[in-house]
Amino acid sequence: MDELNQHPPASESKESATNTTELLHEQEHDSIYNDEHNSIYRNERDFAHNHERELVRNHEREKAEVRKKFLKIGGVVALVLVGLFTLPIPLGSIKVVGSDKVTVQDVEVAGDIGEPVNILRINRETLRNRLSKDLRVEDAQISYELPLTMVIRIAERKGISVIPAQFGYLTLDKNGQVIASDSVIEDTTVPMISGVKGGNILLGDVVTDKPIVQVLDYLRALDDDTFKQIAEVNIGDPDNILVYTVSGIQIRLGDGTNLKDKAELTAAMLKDLPETQGKVEYIDVNPSSPYIKTDRITVQPKSNKNNKSKPDTSQSDKTDTSKQNDNTSKSKQD
């Protein structure tokens, strides 16, 4: 028995060796499988990582290319704009509307605009300020029209009266500024202020003589229709201002007070003339008792019909009328 235990049968030894060999093979196979699996996992992980890095690099390259393109385009645009705003390149045109007196050439001279015209190089505010110094221009508005046109809308400074001067006639605007000087009266659509002669007054000067300023206040207060009917204002006697219509009717203003009220009465009473009986001798626009004096009756305006009528037989009125006519004739001769 001891010999049997010490020396087992050969078949058992072979079986044991076979099992050991198989176990070793299985372990070796498992080890090889694990190694291969780990290798495949590492390769996949490395591939994904490398792919991600490649995508990031490609994205960065694309962004860099886009930036380069924008920089190139921006550089070209900047160069073009710099050239357009600084170089004497002909671009666009200028158009003047609202005035027959101010021309495109006048605008170019006022704005110091050289040839060729490039509207992008013109400073609108500077041009507007320079045009406002032109005595013919009251206001100038500048805008643009397609395709490339600068439009300058001119509001002309209009004359409101003419006064005789030492060597001709001066045209005044509503503010009393001299906007024209001519040897003869060029604008016959505005009233002449007679009974006074302008002294050393130059273009651009503002008249400050009180009677003239008062007449300008009166003329400004008239509506357009009434203004067109006024031909002359005589201020030979500042306390007895006389107005003459284009049809020769005399309007007595008196002194230079309440001129707005007197302008309103002038308009109302001239509208009443067609209904007046007889030949009109004069109109008195004294706000306290306005009336129309004719050779037959004395008529009060409708707006003042609650006041008592003036008697028609006043000899003093007739005497006063003759004095006024004599004074007027003398001032016209002067």
Automatic annotation (TrEMBL):
Question: Would the keyword Membrane be found if you checked this record's keyword annotation?
Answer: yes
Q: Which residues form the POTRA domain?
A: 90-157
Q: Spans of biased composition, class Basic and acidic residues?
A: 309-334
Matching Gene3D superfamilies: 3.40.50.10960, membrane protein fhac
**What residue range is the signal peptide?**
none
UniProt-listed GO biological process terms: cell division
Please indicate which superkingdom the organism of origin belongs to: Bacteria
Q: Which residues cross the membrane?
A: 70-91
Looking at the record, the residues that make up the Cell division protein FtsQ/DivIB C-terminal domain are 168-285
Name of this protein: Uncharacterized protein
Biological classification of the source: Bacteria, Bacillati, Bacillota, Negativicutes, Veillonellales
